[in-house]
Hints:
The structure holds two protein chains of two kinds.
Chain A (H helix, E strand, L loop, with lengths): L2 H14 L1 H4 L1 H10 L3 E7 L5 H4 E2 L6 H5 L14 E3 L3 E3 L4 H8 L3 E8 L7 H10 L9 H7 L10 E4 L13 E4 L9 H11 L5 H18 L12 H13 L6 E6 L8 H4 L1 H18 L6 E7 L19 E6 L28 E2 H11 L5 H7 L16
Parallel strand pairs in A: 1-8, 1-9, 5-11, 6-7, 6-8
Antiparallel strand pairs in A: 2-4, 3-4, 5-10, 9-10
Helix pairs in contact in A: 1-3, 8-15, 9-10, 11-13
Chain B lengths: L2 H10 L13 H7 L13 H13 L8 H20 L3 H13 L9 H13 L7 H10 L1 H6 L11 H5 L7 H10 L9 H11 L2 E4 L7 E4 L9 E3 L2 E3 L3 H12 L2 H15 L6 H13 L4 H9 L14 H12 L9 H7 L17 H4 L2 H17 L5 H9 L5 H8 L4 H10 L7
Antiparallel strand pairs in B: 1-2, 3-4
Helix pairs in contact in B: 1-2, 3-4, 3-6, 4-6, 4-16, 6-7, 7-12, 10-11, 13-14, 14-15, 19-22, 20-22, 21-22
Amino acid sequence: xxxxxxxxxxxxxxxxxxxxxxxxxxxxxxxxxxxxxxxxxxxxxxxxxxxxxxxxxxxxxxxxxxxxxxxxxxxxxxxxxxxxxxxxxxxxxxxxxxxxxxxxxxxxxxxxxxxxxxxxxxxxxxxxxxxxxxxxxxxxxxxxxxxxxxxxxxxxxxxxxxxxxxxxxxxxxxxxxxxxxxxxxxxxxxxxxxxxxxxxxxxxxxxxxxxxxxxxxxxxxxxxxxxxxxxxxxxxxxxxxxxxxxxxxxxxxxxxxxxxxxxxxxxxxxxxxxxxxxxxxxxxxxxxxxxxxxxxxxxxxxxxxxxxxxxxxxxxxxxxxxxxxxxxxxxxxxxxxxxxxxxxxxxxxxxxxxxxxxxxxxxxxxxxxxxxxxxxxxxxxxxxxxxxxxxx
Amino acid sequence: xxxxxxxxxxxxxxxxxxxxxxxxxxxxxxxxxxxxxxxxxxxxxxxxxxxxxxxxxxxxxxxxxxxxxxxxxxxxxxxxxxxxxxxxxxxxxxxxxxxxxxxxxxxxxxxxxxxxxxxxxxxxxxxxxxxxxxxxxxxxxxxxxxxxxxxxxxxxxxxxxxxxxxxxxxxxxxxxxxxxxxxxxxxxxxxxxxxxxxxxxxxxxxxxxxxxxxxxxxxxxxxxxxxxxxxxxxxxxxxxxxxxxxxxxxxxxxxxxxxxxxxxxxxxxxxxxxxxxxxxxxxxxxxxxxxxxxxxxxxxxxxxxxxxxxxxxxxxxxxxxxxxxxxxxxxxxxxxxxxxxxxxxxxxxxxxxxxxxxxxxxxxxxxxxxxxxxxxxxxxxxxxxxxxxxxxxxxxxxxxxxxxxxxxxxxxxxxxxxxxxxxxxxxxx
Lengths: 392, 429
């Protein structure tokens, strides 16, 4: 039996009976925030039809034959995902997760917006709304977590905090240091000088807190990882999330998906970085992987047809990935629209709403109640939480 | 240094260089920079760029050696940074960097490493105080842009080549030109407009010197035949169609609005005050897109003289520090490398939209801490300088009593310089 089942189920029970069980409920409620949640943003628009190839769709070959890897079983071929879909060959670690029942690709998914502008779409995806907001949905989700999170509940991994994580909830940030540093006293004077400044003041104060926190947690790592290597950042995120006193929620970003030309060659790098990154995250999390859910998402998909330069242009429907020890994986979740029925005669027709997937995880995994989900994703009443993402 | 002179050097310029003379009439000093020629730093042309690309293709650079393209690219970056540190017309130079960012070409795609220097030299710099329509045409015809946004290989489906080839249209340049360079989504263009514009631009391609002289080349064999309609505007077939459409876009009211908004955001405030935007928009409209007149009008905006409103981006910040310390050429650190380390490499913007121009995008905790740590490291190498004198020279009347006191009370010159460079007033412009 999966050990995490017990924890999670009792946590939910504890929450439900918080008023009657008194003290015990506190412990159980605390346990509920033992769940770990990681969001990976793929900036630039992943071609979902390339990552999870519907090789069983009769219209595929005519649309994009040259971009389709060999079939499952062939040399350098797709990893079969149940006889209709195949995972791109650059993703062996994720194929292994799928076989272990820990990876759930959600196909023909799209945000609720229909912009084909990277910047507008990313703003909407991260805001969780139909316009750019000053906070991201993951920040609002942290605020709404059942147990009020401590200052280090959420972590942005990388040099900047993505809009997804910006907002009123305090966000720690971690990027591997690579410079000589002032001593604590000089830091303190710098912070004092900037204290009253509305921009530099809070940033430096938070940065210092993050350094202390991250530094202590990471004590004992022998080697500084490459600051820009996604797998190394993911490994660090895993370690930080694994700590009992560490953050519970993290966001990472990975670029390189805007494959307008020469897609077959150019996708290998980012796909393999994602693949190795998720493996590194799992490794870093150790036992806590069983309490973790990961959502991997992108702003939109790409055209179903190849464009004139062996690439694809901005599209609509794409794939998202849900991974983790509690995920009901080992299958592809999709209401497959068929490639004979393209959106605006060019893009994969979306049949699932990315917000629903996110809501399904925030509700089912982090325990956010329905009212909280409504405030995390304003105006999303028609996007009901996706059921069946988790093994409960 | 009074407020006005300080503001002219810090907001409009790139920060005071050492003890350079202060302008008696800051407004006149700024406007004078908009007149005359601006040759900029020398560098490699497109032919030399393509030659370097070919050299690297024929002889793969050995591991640990830079290769022809990287050598050329480093020289271009060093030239740009050295010019920005030493220029006597820093307002003019800020405008060049502004427009180079507006028309981003990045190493993330194409072969811009070998061509980006020429792009700025021939498509941006000559027009930074000229007509926007001329800059737009020069930019879209430049091989760096045609390769960066994939237009060089975009093929009309009904062209001579398109009918037999398996390749076809690529919308990338057409979309970004509408969205980012000219009318912006506010104009309400449709997917159909994007596709039509992409058809207009088919054939706008690049010769690398093998069969035709290196540079722009119109390839009629891949040009989509027939007239097209973009934003309701009828565009003729042929190379002239692209020129015609770009002239239409350059003079579009939505373009003037978009450019005015970005200019005001850069020179006035992160959230552009509508009145200031209207003023600059009107100047652009009345002068048919004269960027020099628009720049002169920015100087005339009272709101642009509100001190220290903008946060210095990493590029701004590195240039301001290097201008302030004004080290001899042989002792200057690698400015381009510093910009990279602080998160804003030259020709390195992740997307065609270029680098953001709002404090919130640059003031993340970790980004700020990198700045602090770098300032400390750099101050260790510049510790021969007197921090109090440097503070007075570079900030003038903007130097606060708190910062001055902290610098004077620092235990070492290094600590004093670190406090100067990390003070809130030095991080702003």
